[in-house]
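Translate structure to sequence.
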């Protein structure tokens, strides 16, 4: 309601061309104290009308706008804080994963060296046994055939082991496969 009254008053002041015409004639008269008092009262009346009717709307607008800006800044700050926390968490995870990768690579290297040494030792033992078996009697012919089969299996298993190791199996898979291979070689050696 107040807004409507203010609007009507402002529209009435704008619609009075006689006031504007009077203002033009006043400049021709070189001004008087009465004109000055009239303009001051007119200006004060205008300020009072604006303050009375439009003031609450203007202050409400700016209050709402500042509250909206504060809310937006608060949301942006919380989103920034959350993004910073996520970035820190991601950096921590990257560091952990890098350390885990180094540890797995070290374990794989150590396990590969260990398993290669065991395969080499088993191969040396098998070669010594083969040499001893060649000196045996008639039963040695049958043993020689088995020995050739074992050598072919050991070569194939060695090739398979190299292929598996070169494909970068996980530490657990590689360990399990190599232990199974060693067990199989041990079983073959016992036969």
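Result:
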């Amino acid at each position: 309601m107040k807004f409507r009254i203010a609007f009507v008053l402002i529209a009435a002041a704008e619609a009075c061309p006689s006031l504007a015409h009077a203002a033009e004639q006043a400049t021709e008269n070189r001004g008087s104290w009465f004109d000055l008092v009239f303009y001051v009262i007119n200006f004060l009346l205008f300020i009072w009308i604006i303050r009375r009717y439009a003031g609450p709307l203007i202050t409400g607008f700016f209050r709402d706008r500042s509250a909206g800006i504060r809310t937006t800044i608060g949301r942006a700050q919380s989103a920034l804080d959350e993004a910073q926390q996520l970035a820190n968490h991601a950096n921590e995870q990257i560091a952990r994963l890098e350390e885990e990768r180094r540890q797995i690579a070290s374990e794989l290297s150590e396990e590969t060296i260990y398993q290669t040494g065991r395969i080499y030792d088993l191969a040396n033992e098998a070669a010594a046994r083969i040499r001893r078996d060649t000196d045996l009697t008639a039963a040695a012919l049958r043993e020689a055939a088995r020995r050739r089969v074992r050598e072919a299996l050991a070569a194939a298993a060695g090739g398979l082991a190299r292929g598996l190791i070169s494909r970068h199996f996980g530490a657990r898979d590689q360990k399990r496969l190599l232990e199974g291979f060693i067990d199989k070689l041990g079983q073959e050696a016992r036969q």
